[in-house]
UniProtKB/TrEMBL annotation:
InterPro entries: AB_hydrolase_1, AB_hydrolase_fold, AB_hydrolase_sf. GO terms for cellular component: membrane. The keyword Hydrolase applies. It comes from Westerdykella ornata. PANTHER family: HYDROLASE, PUTATIVE (AFU_ORTHOLOGUE AFUA_2G14860)-RELATED (PTHR43798:SF33), MONOACYLGLYCEROL LIPASE (PTHR43798). SUPFAM superfamilies: alpha/beta-Hydrolases. Residues 33-137 form the AB hydrolase-1 domain. One of its GO terms (biological process) is acylglycerol catabolic process. This is Alpha/beta-hydrolase. Keywords: Hydrolase. GO terms for molecular function: monoacylglycerol lipase activity.
Length: 147
């Protein structure tokens, strides 16, 4: 479950309330940041073992962001439909709002598709990818039309 929410506006989606959880409740600029996106039908609670791992949280910031329509993250106010690209755009905006310029990105299952899209949208901001349990099929016209 998210421990915080952040209000953001994205032009084509409208006003959003985004659920997220941050290790140690703040970004330590001296540490690398790992952004985590959970799978469908899950929340940031999926990453509880990582948040409880003091060896990990002493080495890096962990920022778990709940995708659109999951956990504490709202549905878009302006768009009737949304896709994985929209969650990637939202996650990059959350990073900006929290002062995270660059990060490694980890996604589980469909969360992996979202972090790959983050890297495609902003390759200068994503330092590396950790897709877990994620299929990486080729992008085709058909797959793009599905979001």
């Amino acid at each position: 479950m998210a421990s915080s929410t952040l209000d953001i506006t994205i032009a084509h989606l409208g006003d959003l309330k985004v659920g997220y959880r941050l290790s140690n409740d703040k970004i330590d600029p001296k540490k690398a940041t790992l952004v985590c996106i959970n799978s469908m039908c899950m929340t940031a609670a999926l990453f509880e073992p990582q948040f409880q791992d003091t060896q990990l949280t002493s080495a890096c910031n962990i920022l778990a962001i709940e995708p659109l329509g999951h956990g504490a993250t709202s549905f878009p106010t302006k768009a009737e439909h949304f896709n994985y690209w929209d969650t990637a755009i939202m996650a990059l905006e959350v990073m900006s709002k929290l002062g995270v310029e660059k990060a490694f990105a980890r996604g589980t299952s469909q969360g992996g598709w979202m972090v790959v899209r983050m890297a495609l949208l902003a390759p200068e901001r994503i330092l590396g990818l950790v897709p877990l349990g994620t299929s990486m099929e080729a992008e085709t016209t058909e797959s793009q039309s599905k979001g």
